Fold:
Amino acid sequence: MKPFTYARAADTLEAVREASGPSHDFIAGGTNLLDLMKLEVMAPDKLVDINRLDLKQISETEDGGLRIGALVTNSDCAADDRIRRDYPVLSRAILAGASGQLRNKATTGGNLCQRTRCYYFYDTAMPCNKREPGSGCQAIGGATRLHAIFGASDQCIATYPGDMAVAMSALDASVEIEGKDGASRTVPVRDFHRLPGDRPDKDNVLEDGEMITAVTLPA
Structure:
C-alpha cells in the first residue's frame, strides 16, 4: 500500500472541502476501498474519514417515505422494521450480498460507490481502461468476455457488482449529493451510475469533492 495523507472531517462541509482533489477519497467502512488500496488498484494521495458525520440515521420524510443516511450500515438498513415492512426488496437485496461481518461495516453511500469485481480491474499486470484509461480492455477477449449484457462499449464490459442499488432503482429512490461549494443536488439512483462509453474510469456522476449524504425512498 502506498503512503497517503489522512484527515478526519467534523462536518459535511469540511469533508467535501478536504476531499477536493484528483486523488482524494472518502473512507467510512472501507470494505471495498481498503482491498483496492492493498492491491494498489487504487492509490489515493489523501483519505478523508467521514465516520464522525451525522449521517447514521434512518428518518421519515414529510411525504411518508424514508431517508437513509449515507453512513447507515447495510446491517442496520436491512434490519430496520420500516425497511422490512414497506421496502422488503431492499432488505432482501442487502442480505443477499456479502457476509454479516462486511454488512456490519459497509455503508449505504459506500455501497453505491463500490467498484467492479472484474478480474482484470483487480490485476494490475493486465490492461484495464477502468483502472488506467487508454491501456485497453483485456476482459473483452478474455475469461470474462461475457461480462456485460447491456450498456457495454468497446472500452469496457465490466459490470457493477451491487445488489442494493438494483433494489433502490426499482423503488425509484434518489441520491442526495453535497458539493464543496455547499450546493446540493438530487439524482435518481437509476441515473447515478454511468455506462462505460469512452470514460469507463468514471463509475458514477459524482464530481470532484462531491459526497453522498443520503438516499431517499418515496412513500
Q: What stands out?
A: The two ends are 44 Å apart (CA to CA).
